[in-house]
Design goal:
The longest helix has 19 residues. The protein has a 5-stranded mixed β-sheet. The N and C termini lie far apart (25 Å). By secondary structure, it is an alpha+beta fold. It is built from 3 helices and 5 strands, in the order βααββββα.
């Protein structure tokens, strides 16, 4: 699986504390395995948010990662709290 990073994702991750950045990178490392076996619990809380293939993964209790999924490619769009994710989705 290949990953691409959009600028809003990069900015959001740069603004996080080190602990939260580590949680986001853990999601990226586990993402391919979680998508290959979606019914096996990995703690990522993957769920499809939008019909246009926008997905959410849980990095921690209060941090989420948004990405677009297309075959063998994930485009990382945004990382933030639940409320920040909701605001970001409304801007799409």
């Amino acid at each position: 699986m290949t990953l691409s990073f959009r600028e809003p994702f990069r900015r959001a991750v740069r603004s996080l504390q080190a602990r939260d950045q580590a949680a986001v990178w853990r999601v990226l490392l586990e993402l391919e395995a979680a998508l290959a076996q979606p019914y096996e619990h990995r703690g990522l809380g993957l769920r499809k948010l939008h019909p246009t293939e926008v997905w959410e993964a849980r990095a921690s209790l209060d941090r989420r990662v948004l990405f677009l999924l297309a075959r063998d490619h994930a485009i990382l769009m945004f990382a933030g709290t639940h409320d920040e994710v909701q605001r970001f989705l409304k801007s799409l």
